Amino acid sequence: MWWYVTSALVRARGEDGQALGEFTLVLALVSLVAVLALTALGLAVLAFYQPVAEAMGL
User: Fold this and answer.
1) CA 44, CA 40: separation in Å to the nearest integer?
2) What was the pLDDT predicted at 57?
């Protein structure tokens, strides 16, 4: 993924290219934050339901 970001920045020339590069970096950052948030949420849900699953013998 980092290769795509750097290649987009290398190909970007001028102000239009700079905007594309900045958009790419923001998109990568938002994607990373979303993955981390969903991982944390998944772990919280697992911790919440784990005692119930153990009580049911699953």
Assistant:
1) 6
2) 85
